[in-house]
Amino acid sequence: MDAIMLHSIWTVVLLVVFVGIVIWAWSGKRKEAFRDAANLPLEDEEYVNSSKKSGDKLHG
């Protein structure tokens, strides 16, 4: 095998991996998990704000 054949095989392997990741990301099974991940920063901010409020009540 020469270098050109190896580069061609490597390109095809990477293309198949890329297509697999795209199919995995856009599958319906992952929709809920991605929605939860997208809302995580918003939920984290609410948690921080609520813990500050409850902490203020405890200390004064």
Q: Which structural class is indicated by helix and strand composition?
A: mainly alpha
Count every beta strand, where a strand is a DSSP E run of 2 or more residues: 0
| Residue-averaged pLDDT | 81
* Form type: elongated
The major sheet is characterized as: none
Number of distinct helices: 2
Q: Span from first to last CA?
A: 76 Å
Strand content: under 5%
Helix content bin: over 70%
Question: What is the domain total for the residues?
Answer: 1
Along the chain, the helix and strand elements come as: HH
The rounded Rg comes to: 23 Å
Low-confidence stretches: none
Structure description:
This protein is 88% helix and 0% strand. The radius of gyration is 23 Å and the shape is elongated. The mean pLDDT is 81. The protein has helices at residues 3-26, 31-59. The chain has one domain. The protein contains two helices and no strands.
Defining key terms:
single chain, 60 residues, mainly alpha, 88% helix, 0% strand
Quick overview:
With 60 residues, the chain is mainly α. It has helices spanning 3-26, 31-59.
